[in-house]
Amino acid sequence: MRKPTRKVSKKVRKDNFDEKFELLVGEYHKAKAILDTLAEDTVEYDKQKKQCDMLFANAERFFNSRQK
């Protein structure tokens, strides 16, 4: 006979979602602040811009995946 499985409550999932999403958004804001200090048309600016775009896409993907 199997043990009954424990179901994760919606509140716990929501709390984990909020924490993870806040972390992703925080990382994006830090990267964006660094990007704002750099001069455009430099190698560092391009690298930081790619990093910001990647972080934004990750946060957006995470948000969209949890909305279903």
Features of this protein?
68 residues, mainly alpha, Lacal_2735 family protein
Account of the protein in words:
This protein has 68 residues and is an all-alpha fold. 76% of the residues lie in helices and 0% in strands. It contains 2 helices and no strands. The longest helix has 28 residues, at 10-37. It is elongated. The two termini are 34 Å apart. The model has no long low-confidence stretch (mean pLDDT 87). It comes from Shewanella submarina. This is Lacal_2735 family protein.
Shape: elongated
Q: What is the helix tally? A: 2
SSE ordering: HH
Number of strands: 0
Helix/strand class: mainly alpha
Distance between the termini: 34 Å
Radius of gyration: 18 Å
Helix content: over 70%
Mean pLDDT over the residues: 87
Low-confidence stretches: none
Q: What is the strand content?
A: under 5%
Largest sheet entry: none
Protein name: Lacal_2735 family protein
Organism: Shewanella submarina
Task: Annotate the secondary structure layout.
Layout (H helix, E strand, L loop, with lengths): L9 H28 L5 H24 L2
Helix pairs in contact: 1-2
Protein name: Lacal_2735 family protein
